[in-house]
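Thread title: Can someone regenerate the structure for this chain?

I was given the following input by a collaborator and told the matching structure tokens would be attached. They weren't. Posting the sequence so someone can regenerate them.
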Amino acid sequence: MTPVEKPLATLVAIDDDPESLKLVTAALKQQPLQVLTATDPRSGLELIRGTHPDILLLDLVMPEMSGMEVLERTLELSPETEVVLVTGHYSTESAVEAIRKGASDYLNKPLSVSLLRERVNRLIEQARRRQAVLRLDSELLHASQFEGMIGRSPAMLQVFDRVRRVAPHFRTALVTGATGTGKELVAAALHHLSPVSSGRFAVCNCAAVVETLVESELFGHVKGAFTGAMQDKIGLFEYASGGALLLDEIGDMPLETQSKLLRALEYGELQRVGSPAVRKVDVRVIAATNHDVHDLIEQKRFRQDLYYRLASVEIRLPRLVERLEDLPLLVRHFVDLFAAQYHKPLRGLTPRAQIVLAQYPWPGNVRELRSVIGSAAMMAESEWIDARDLPDPLRAGSSRSSEDAELLPLAEVERRHVLRVLERAGGNKLRAAKILGIHRATLYRFLGQNAGDGESGPA
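Best answer:
Regenerated them for you:
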């Protein structure tokens, strides 16, 4: 490393052979790399605990503790570290086990200086790209935000566009979508972009109000209208007049109240409970529900004429599994949010944690994702959230996916394993074939590709 170069990465080498460590240090002296060494596993683990290195060069066979044990401890202490195992006793079985346990690469002794430099340079480049990706993620996250919502998927861009076009003109709107998809955020955006944005934005959760009090909550009541009505009370329609009112979970509104709501929407008039006086209101109403309204109409639980009145503008929100391309952006947003909230220097998720999130079906949608990242952020002990920091249901789901592989034909299990190794090898088929201990032609046969395909793999 020249005096003007700053280390781009940190490498820890653990080997009980001092000569091997001297070779590694000399071979990497000119690299933009800080090299730290240890001749026994325990002092090496202390180095890892204190430095969280980018790369660990680890001897597989050592006294007191095996390289496999150190690998597992390393990924607990520093899950972001790329581990390269080194051994003079190569076997396909140990290579596959190492990759399965989280190693990035596997080198044979005696070490080839040129091969060592090549592999380390590749990992340094990966670290450099990771930093660049983090910067780009932040820029993309900023560019993908709209009124408190985040997305760049076609489904969400369509939602954003519809909100923009509808907001200046709507009188009533219906927002539909599963629980946790962000219906209240859409309602707030409609109000904020409307001509009455300076007016009040009131919210009524129809499912949370006792059925006998829904009418009073919406339209108000006068003193003595019912037992406990000790004074006049203004309803949410009057309170939000000149602004907007969100009727959340409108599918749970009683039918009798629905008929009075329809009159308020059509004529802008209401009567407080217990009063014959008609009051005028001017309020924009946004209704939201996670139910299929057509099913409710068939079940006689929702008025069809009210649906037609509300659905002059209808905005449907997609489930998270329908917009998985937004998952990395949402994760980045929530990591930043909870890093600030918990005062932790969180930088993102490890590849293992990303895989678990990508495989999960997200029944609770974005709300569940926020909860998961919040929980994991509290549990994380390093700058990177790892799979072990995620809640048990997610990790259990990932384990079940692995167990399901036992029910697959052997050829499919082998093909999936080859694909995992290929992914770990950065898409380099020659390197993956070496890790697997098979000829490159055999690898192509597993992948069902022609041997003339390129070496870089899918983009």
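The two ends are 32 Å apart (CA to CA).
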